[in-house]
Structure formats: C-alpha cells, structure tokens
Model the fold of this input.
Amino acid sequence: MWVVVFLFLFGACGGTTEEGGASKEGGGVSGKLVLTGSSTVAPLAGEIGRRFEERHPGVRVDVQTGGSSRGIADVRSGVAGIGMVSRWLKPEESDLEAYTIAMDGVCLIVHRDNPVARLTGEQVIGLYRGKIVDWKEVGGKPGPVTVVNKAEGRATLEVFLGHFGLKSEEIEADIIIGDNQQGIKTVSGNPGAIGYVSIGAADFEARRGAPLRLLPLDGVEATVENVASGRFPMSRPLNLVTVGKVPALAKKFIDFARSKEVHDLVRKQTYVPYEGNGEK
Done:
C-alpha cells in the first residue's frame, strides 16, 4: 500500500517580477521577484535572496517550492519571474534559458544502522522494481525493504530514472515523497528504508547528526569533492531559468547568484559553486 507524503507549497504567488523606481541604496533596482520550483535549489536560492535583499533594500525575493516542473510551468505562464530547475534542460524546453548557479549530485541513502555499504546497479533496479524485498538478499540483516521514491514532477526523480534506465511505472514504492527533507526524514526514521536525494542536502544533514549513510555509486563515493571533479556519475546542475526577455531585476539577481559573492552560501549548503562551466 502506498503512503503519499507529498508537500506542494503554494505561497501568495503575486505574479511576475515587479520593478519600481530606481533605488539609490539598492543599486537602481526595486520591487518583488518571485522564484518557484525545485526544492533542491530553493534553500540555496532563499539564502542568496536574503543577501541580495541586504544589498538592495528596495527588493523583496519570494522563494516557493513545488518541484522543477512547477518552476518551468510558472515561468512560462508569468506567475514567476525565475524558475528553479535541478537538472539539465530537455530539447523540448528550448524556449527557456538556463543559468547554472551550482552543481550537485543525486545519491542513494540508507539508515546509518543498515550494514549494507554499497549496492550494484542491478541491485538498485531490483529494489525499486520490487524484485528484492528483503535486505538479506543484498547482504544486509533480514528485514523488509521500504522503498522511498520521489513524486512525479521532481527533477531528482528524472535524474534517478535516467541513470538506471527505469520508467516511473516500473517503480514499486512504499512511500512517495516530495522534497529532499522529506526523503531524509523518512530514511532517518526507518532503518529498513532506502531513498535517493541531493548529495548536498544529505551530506549537510548527516554532518548535523542525521542517522544517514550516503552510498557510493559505480564505485565512486557520494561526496561533494567527487561532484566537483566530475567523477560522480549522477551529477546535475542547479539552474535558474527564464523565458523571453529578462527584466532588469531578474537579470541582476541571476548575475549575483552566479557570482563569487555567494560561493560561501553555496558551500554552506554543501553544493559545488558555479565556476563558469555550466549552462548560460
């Protein structure tokens, strides 16, 4: 039986970017900027937004989650000035412009008390297809496997499916979650669970004491350093996306989010700072 734990946050959308008169203190920009989308990007965008507001007192930055698909839909419809997307853009999304602000990876996580230290790709596929239902089948202690999967519309799900060559309809999940924090809390509270989340989010919470283990993938440890070097096989960009002509306020925010002025915030979130090698 599936248990749905799906969080979809709607704030007061307030529509698109609004720009007012020039602000002497704020460097010539003022108004409200709405960002919606990826729950992986949102915490970082929120921190960047707060620093941006400090630099530009006449600006308010509103960050809302709901998944990468929401970010794309909202920016296309004009509900948001900027969308947040935690994956590469697809060919059918050529109307969008993507601006990478950081790099991240997607890793499998299990409870710290689970003795399974690594899984083969075949074993992961077996677990998620419901062919492997007991941890003893992959060298663990006897006990049922709780498969935690991401909800549709989440970029992390797309990255995971693409890497393992799976289709959504093949997944036999016990629990469906929305954002990374839900996945981390679910696995932290269930020694028999397995899930997949952002490396940055998992590493950040593990350092703060969450009872998690990040599993290696294809023999490569799930670390920020391996994401930075390009070695980790399930890596992806964290993007801000726009459509059409970019208003001055949105452009100024994007430039700031891609600058060295926020590298400390990126590292604090355990992501890899943008160094000019991603999308536009």
